[in-house]
Specification:
Multidrug efflux transporter AcrB transmembrane fold, 19 helices, 6 strands, 69% helix
């Protein structure tokens, strides 16, 4: 509301966008129920995301409406002209944003896929509401008559912000190669930093220590042997293979290795039962705390245990005694520790058992590692899908292969520089951040589309790249800035979340949107001036 009060110049400029975004959130939540979908962890992001993204179309329309009024058009004519100028760009930006979210369908994690559908529905709903409600809100009232004439070649308002835009124009026009080189160097450094980004999917580690559930995890870790476990299934491949003394000795060596591992707090298996029973039947002498020496002896101990009411045997060995289960308890581990632990276990098991015994790691820690792999895979797939599809859309919309590619370059940059920051700062890629890349490229491209489509229109009118840049920034520079400020402040609210992944998502998204604005003001213009994708400039008659 504060931003709209500053930008929209009137009560209706505050009410209309807020009505639109609130209705888009309500429509989205209603569609979730109608479609039979479920609410999950990612639903936390949807209302804030829709408020920030959905308000952009309204801001562009309102800004263009006031520009048309400044040029002397009556209210209804200004509404029609504003819609004619920004309607198509807003449609394209809504489609590309929806595509960015629908790219989540390329991932194999259900909540992640559903969140993409939620957000896409909300974005389209916000666009439809903007088309219907904003013209209604602005179609009545007194005409904003302006007696001052403003030339087409220089339509700036001559305030503080326009002076900044003029300086940006001078910098880019005067030093386009330097600007391009700086962004290329930043991109290279960011790619280097990205190589250090690690994936973290431990939900407990993402929770604030103030929350009761996190305190419960910590209590179990400190006093009850740990809240995580690694289950190892040892398949001998033959009936009664577990009773073989040779296998039991190998298993005993393997369990001792896991017991001594620095990440393990406790281990358990059928060996513990056999050793305890053998010692109990030999007057509790410590030297008998060992595995039976013969297969028959093992069978007798297990039979005695089972007939005496042993209820846990079916959890430790299979019905045919061909598979044995070994459990290792650990404290709540980071994903990197889980991965290293599983690698150590598999390497030792391969050396200890050889090819005769099939070793499978499962349980909570094993599931944890698999989820980790899916998060990394989903992040890459969703980003690549969004990148390819949005690029194709831009090529078609811009009517030029070169212009479509140039339009995408500034939108990849904020993703790269943010991932580079994560790598250098040691910030993990956790489950909420899995959606980061596709969200940024899907949202950041909106302002680039407005910039490029206006630039092309101005070039057709003026025939000069430098003059077109000045005219473009004088018209779309303000709404691009205001929508970016809305995104930055709106996503920053997520920093107050007690889930660190959500908080990091908000802060890193704000960081990325700031760089997306800089890319639109510097990177994209430099590319246009140097590569001239719209063709040669027109010769001046003077």
């Amino acid at each position: 509301m504060g931003i709209l009060f500053w930008v929209a110049r009137g009560v209706r400029g505050i009410v209309a966008p807020l009505v639109i975004v609130v209705l888009s959130v309500l429509w989205t939540m209603g569609m979730i129920g109608v479609m039979g979908l479920t609410l999950n962890l990612f639903i936390i992001l949807v209302p804030t995301l829709l408020i920030c993204v959905g308000i952009g179309d309204s801001v562009h329309f309102i800004s263009e409406f006031h520009d048309q009024c400044i040029h002397g058009l009556k209210r209804r004519q200004a509404v029609i002209e504003a819609m004619a100028r920004v309607g198509l760009p807003c449609l394209i930006t809504s489609l590309t944003t929806a595509i960015g979210f629908l790219s989540f369908l390329a991932a194999r994690i259900k909540p992640f896929r559903e969140m993409g559908v939620y957000a896409a529905i909300g974005v389209i709903a916000a666009f439809v509401l903007t088309l219907v409600l904003v013209p209604v809100f602005y179609s009545f009232g007194k005409d904003q008559v302006r007696s001052r004439k403003i030339s087409d070649s220089h339509r700036l308002h001559h305030d503080f912000w326009d002076r900044i835009l003029e300086k940006i124009c001078r910098i880019v026009i005067g030093y386009p190669k330097t600007v391009l080189l700086m962004f290329i160097c930043l991109s290279i450094v960011s790619v280097i930093g990205y190589q250090s980004v690690e994936v973290e999917t431990n939900t407990a580690k993402m929770l604030s220590r103030k929350l009761p559930i996190r305190q419960a995890y910590d209590y179990v870790d400190d006093r009850m042997g740990g809240s995580m476990s690694l289950e190892v299934m040892l398949n001998t491949g033959e009936k009664d293979g577990v009773k073989d003394p040779a296998f039991l000795k190998q298993m005993d060596t393997f369990q001792q290795f896991m017991e001594d591992h620095p990440l393990t707090t406790k281990t358990s298996s059928v060996l513990d039962i056999l050793k305890k029973m053998r010692r109990a039947l030999h007057e509790n002498k410590s030297e008998y705390y060992a595995i039976p020496e013969t297969k028959d002896g093992t069978s007798q101990y297990l039979f005695l245990y089972e007939t005496s009411g042993g209820e846990n045997l079916d959890k430790l060995v299979s019905f045919d005694y061909d598979i044995a289960r070994l459990t290792a308890r650990t404290k709540t581990l980071y994903t990197k520790d889980v991965r290293n632990f599983i690698t150590d276990v598999k390497d030792f098991a391969q050396k200890n058992f050889g090819p005769a015994v099939k070793v499978e790691v499962t349980g909570y820690a094993g599931w944890f590692k698999r989820l980790n792999d899916l998060v990394g895979e989903g992040q890459r797939q969703s980003f690549i899908t969004a990148l390819i599809v949005i690029t194709l859309v831009l090529i078609v919309v811009m009517g030029s292969f070169r212009l479509g590619l140039i339009s995408m370059v500034p939108n990849v940059f904020p993703v790269l520089i943010t991932l580079g920051l994560m790598g250098f700062a040691g910030i993990y890629m956790d489950t909420p951040l899995m959606s980061f890349s596709a969200v940024i490229i899907g949202v950041a491209v909106d302002d680039t589309i407005h910039f490029m489509m206006r630039f092309r229109r101005e070039f057709e009118r003026l025939g000069n790249y430098a003059d077109s840049l000045r005219a473009t920034l004088s018209t779309v520079g303000r709404p691009i800035t205001f929508t970016t400020v809305t995104l930055v402040l709106g996503f920053s609210v997520l920093a107050f979340s007690n889930v660190s992944g959500i908080a990091k998502f908000g802060l890193l998204s704000s960081f990325a949107f700031l760089w997306a604005l800089l890319a639109d003001f510097f990177f994209a213009p430099a590319l246009m001036l140097l590569f001239k994708p719209l063709g040669p400039e027109k010769q001046s008659n003077g």
